[in-house]
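Subject: sequence -> structure tokens, single chain

Hey, anyone have a minute? Need the predicted structure for the following. Not urgent.
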Amino acid sequence: MTFVQLIECRTSRLDEMNRLMDDWVQRTKGTRTATHAVVGTDRSDASHVVEVVEFPSYEEAMRNSNLPETDRIFRGLVALCDEMPTFTDLDVVRDERLSEHVVRGFFEALCAAGELPPLNDLLDEDIHSHDPMNPLDTIGLDNTRAEFRMWRGAFDFAFTIEDVFAQGDRACARWTWRATHRGDFLGIAPTGRRVGMTGMTLFRFGADGKIAELWWQHDQLGLMQQLGALDELEQ
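Reply:
Had a minute. Here:
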């Protein structure tokens, strides 16, 4: 069962607290068991700071508490606070990840005008993208962005999301893609043709809620036919 710890304190030294947290994140890389952390300040009282830390289970939270780095950061936290921090332990009884919102936001970002957004708020740094049009998987955020830029350079396009289904750490979107061929695509010079595909994308989300893996299924043969790439073969 997912476990959440709510930490509340009062401090006027938020910048120092943030640096302390950054140091803890760096020192516990590969050993910490916390999967998600959010820090907020009270809009009516900026000295009131609340941190929400998520763990896979209570047992994992206890393992995290026993790390030497955790004890060090606790002592540093106390030194920065105006009074002793309070801790509330919560067993999660309902968890809505809002993965459908992330999926729709992902497709909106792919179609965004201007430069391709960084996507680091949506995609994991080590994302794997599986596309049947590529002989090898695309691995890593930079390589995945480069692949998306290739499509954006070749087509002016838009997605229509027909359905989104989500369960656990997976989601699946059924979509329709409509585009105008404006640039070179796999050696095919711009044709100005209006083209379209239907397809589905399966998403796997990581523990931080970002997209960690993509599987694409689409009518690539139909796309090549619409672009005229199969004309000679059909004669």
